[in-house]
Amino acid sequence: MYNSDLPSRADLPSTMQLFRSTLIAAGVAVVILVTAVLPGEYGVDPTGIGRILGLTQMGEIKQQLAAEADAAAVQAVAETEMAVEAVAADVVEAPQAAPASGWREEVTLTLAPGEAAEIKLVMKAGETAGYAWAATGGVLNSDLHGDGKGGQSTSYRKGRAEAADSGDLTAAFDGSHGWFWRNRGDAPVELLLQVKGQYAELKRVL
């Protein structure tokens, strides 16, 4: 059986030697941190050695790339949010063909207290569209009007605290003709608009 010789007390390092070794190791770590890690990773060069060794330039490039990546991510999020908002603003709630009722399109939407909505038909002068709208859960103020090029505008009718209206809309000029509603009540109001006849497009503008 092999027995190794145990070291004598004199061969063991003293407490002072261990302390000195610890201080030396800590000092070396600090030197490496200041001269290599900080310049190479973060572009921070308090001693100037990192720039001489080319480490500072490398760290500055890393920080620049990281900043550009963060900016690109923020921009992408902002663009996505803008795109979603644009789509939400352009999409009319439930525009559908309604062959069973004889209407060309139907639109349903809900107006919260104080909320307004505006829907227009793109029409040429002399074209006529039939319409009917009805409110459920309350009444609405309305303005049936038209807008065209060169500042043209006209008002066909105004209504106050109405639950429904129907009739024919004949365009006075080329442009957008339709309805503006506002809920002045204290409860949500559901609105149904039905249209048919001569027009190129139905769009929600508010």
Keywords summarizing the entry:
single chain, 5-stranded antiparallel beta sheet, rod-shaped, alpha+beta, 3 helices, 206 residues, 10 strands, 33% helix
Can you describe what's shown?
With 206 residues, this protein is of the alpha+beta class. The protein has helices spanning 15-42, 49-53, 55-90; strands spanning 96-98, 103-111, 116-123, 128-136, 140-148, 153-162, 164-170, 175-182, 189-197, 201-204. It has a 5-stranded antiparallel β-sheet, with no helix packed on it. β5 and β6 form a beta hairpin.
Quick structural overview:
The chain has 206 residues and is of the alpha+beta class. The protein is 33% helix and 37% strand.
Instruction: Determine the strand fraction and express it as a percent band.
Output: 35-45%
Total helical segments: 3
Strand numbers in spatial order across the main sheet: 1-2-9-4-7
Order of helices and strands: HHHEEEEEEEEEE
Average pLDDT score? 81
Rg calc:
38 Å
Q: Oligomeric form of this entry? A: single chain
Q: Low-confidence parts lasting 5 or more residues at pLDDT below 50? A: 87-99
What is the CA-CA span between the terminal residues? 95 Å
Characterize the biggest β-sheet: 5 strands, antiparallel
The coarse overall form would be rod-shaped
The SS-based structural class is alpha+beta
Q: How many beta-strand runs?
A: 10
Helix content: 25-40%
